[in-house]
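Practice record 12: protein with pyridoxal-5'-phosphate.
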Amino acid sequence: MSEAERADPYGVNRWGDGYVTQLDDGDLALVNPLAPDAAPISLPSIISNLEARGIQTPVLLRVASYLKHSIHHLNTCFAEAIESYKYEGVYRGVFPIKVNQQAQVIDRIAEYGAPYHFGLEAGSKPELVIALAQKLSPDALIVCNGVKDKEFIALAIRSRQLGFNTIIVLESISELNLVMEVSRELEQEPLLGVRIKLNHRVSGNWAESSGDRSTFGLTINQIVDVVDRLKKANLLHCLVLQHSHLGSQIPNVNDVRRAVTEACRVFTALSGEGVPLAYLDLGGGLGIDYTGQKSNAVNSTNYTMSEYCFNIVEAVGYAMAEAGLPHPTIVTESGRAVSAHSSFLVFSVLEATSYHNEDMPLPEADDHHLISDITAIKDYLAADRLQECFNDARYYRDELRTLFSLGNISIREMARAEKIYLHITSLIKKAADESDAIPDDMEEKFNQLVDIYHCNFSLFQSLPDVWAIDQLHPIVPLQRLNEKPTNQAILSDITCDSDGKIDRFVTGDGDSSSLPIHPLKEDENYYLGVFFVGAYQETLGDLHNLFGDTNVVTIDFDGVGGIKILNEVEGDSISDVLSYVEYDPRDCVDAFKKIVEQAVSDGKISVKERKSLIATYKGLMNGYTYFESSETL
Ligand SMILES: *Cc1c(COP(=O)(O)O)cnc(C)c1O
């Protein structure tokens, strides 16, 4: 373990900047980024407050001020860059609805974004329906991407009569034909954009969405075709926006610069062809630093939001000056960077499966000699013999297992041998923790000895990207941070799927295959928080094992040292999730009643038991899908 990791095992000081901090009493606390000098608010106290109100964990907490702050910060960074480079255009961001479609999020983005003329990006008909129900600034844009049918196009065109600046971004030639057809039928003109395919390939998780083979966008040759067709139809004046999108979470800022330069090249060339482009839309990709490493790594970024904005404005300004063109309005579709910080998931640890043992069983007279051998390892355990001790312990343990399976030692003897083995390996691990140089081979083997902490959440429902693409989110105990975490664990969720586990964590100096964690105490609720889950996680989640949506609470700082609850959305009940999978909960009750009635007729249960069994069944039906702390039956 390195010094950095000892001092800040979870890296809170690196990634938590401006959002969470540690209090002297060991509680993790929320910082108000809009009032950084105000006292931080203890998270365990927020959770116990919610529980007192009957709002149980797992719970997803959204902090309104975090959303407000990121919108403010993004727009301020662009404004500063524009001022600094004397850029003559403006910035008009749009939030891509697919990143978080929840009403509590979109409504707030529309509200907090209004002073900045922040708009929305819609990639489907339902998302356009959401966008058109918002009160946006008259200067805000609605950018329509994705595959569009006639209905989608017609609503986009007609919304302009209401004052919306709805731009249809052409994704293919056949879409252009459809747009022209709808426009003729409606006798109204569209505002158009065109999505270009950039050649530059970025690094990171979304490399596939960039470059020649990306599935989106038009090639140069198709774009020229679009221009010619529009010219012929006398509609070239409608084509006002050029769009490109490289994929999400771009770790390297130089990829952004190169892509912007390439996009500008196409932009200036199209302008030269007489296309009246006024908006340069650079899509999403602005990453966030989940690990706090500030590096060109998949879950990190080697740039800040401010650097991103400065680089874009500089590159666009330079390209336009070179081409002698006026400065276009810069648009980005930053989704992750706007919403990721604003929510986090809190759940409790239900129990721990321990792979270490503090107490050494005493030797017994008729012990098999291998048991004495394994016990004796502690007599020669030393910093320079760790690997040897570890190899010996494994060898004796495996030999004993063989003896047990052959029936040569008893189950009680084997149980003692397992305990001794765990005790010895705990001693070896402790010695290794205190030394800085551990052979790689041993580090890997130690991973098989870490504890398993069983937690009350579903990876598939609440953290789908952790499962699907190894996304890293900071995970931190909410309490006892002033106490050294003496255990190492992986987390397993409440589903019955062996994939339902987390075994990569953000730590003080990067990431690790186990989480430093405290031993559980009787009568203490031990909570973990998973941070920065406000982008993509909520609707990508699924109903694996029929664990439904968690409770969701939107909170905010009340300005006088506390928290206020702005909104509560109760999680799915069991009857809700049953109806998602085509069951009618009432039919289930009826079917259960029949079975119970039969048991009464067969004399297996009394009528009184019938009544209470049915009440239990119905009670469960209305309850939470997650583990609920025991109530009296
Ligand atoms: C998903 C998506 C975005 C959002 O990207 P982020 O990296 O989350 O900012 C923006 N534009 C388009 C076209 C997208 O598909």
